[in-house]
Write a structure and sequence with these properties.
Blueprint lengths: L2 E6 L3 H13 L2 E6 L2 H8 L6 E4 L2 E2 L2 E2 L4 H7 L4 E6 L4 H9 L4 E4 L4 H15 L1 H4 L1 E4 L2 E4 L4 E4 L2 E3 L3 H12 L4 E2 L1 H9 L9 H19 L2 E6 L3 E7 L6
Parallel strand pairs: 1-2, 1-3, 3-6, 6-7
Antiparallel strand pairs: 4-5, 8-9, 9-10, 10-11, 12-14, 13-14
Helix pairs in contact: 5-8, 7-8, 7-9
Amino acid sequence: MKKEMLIIEDDLSLQKIVSEHMQNIQFKCTCVQTIAAAKSLFEKKFFHIILLDLGLPDGDGLDCISFIKSIWNETGVLVISARDKLEDRVDGLNLGADDYLVKPFHLSELTARVNALMRRNFQSENQILHFGQIQIDTQLNQVFITGKTIDFSRKEFDLLLYFFENKNKVLTKESLFEHVWGENSVFMDNSDFIYTHINRLRKKIKVHTGENYITTVHGFGYKLDILKDEASH
């Protein structure tokens, strides 16, 4: 089942970009442009995450944070706003927002913030991820292979977690860069850079499992799959 997200944003171009991106990472997005339209949905439907702009046509988004939390306290509210003053951030958090992201932002950072909220608010159902002989504890940020704790660098962990969240799906080099290093990474045009990290991750997994879980889909990208001895550079 897809996770539900409500995007309250009156900038239609940004709304479209964000909704398309979030749908690509397994969210079902509903978009509205006003506080009134959002409030009409709150009592009818549960949303795991709400992205909330502040400067809306019919009022200040800050005014509906407490209303959201009074109905669905476990919903993660992420404010996305061009207001970058400290008092605005403090006001939003004090009113019950879970996080605050200043515009303009990279989609990779938005993804990271949303995933962090999902782990924080819904850890009971999403704490341990499994694939083959590998387990990831998303609360402790630890990887277990055949029951043993295996050390991974921060980037290796982020790569593996991204593969887990998109298991059996082909991930392009560009999507991997954007998620782990940011969409404006200076390494974006260096194919050897991503090959090196993928192969390092493969070797670390294979030495403990004897299997290549990360396979190459030639001409497209990489996929987390349970196939033996078929991954290649």
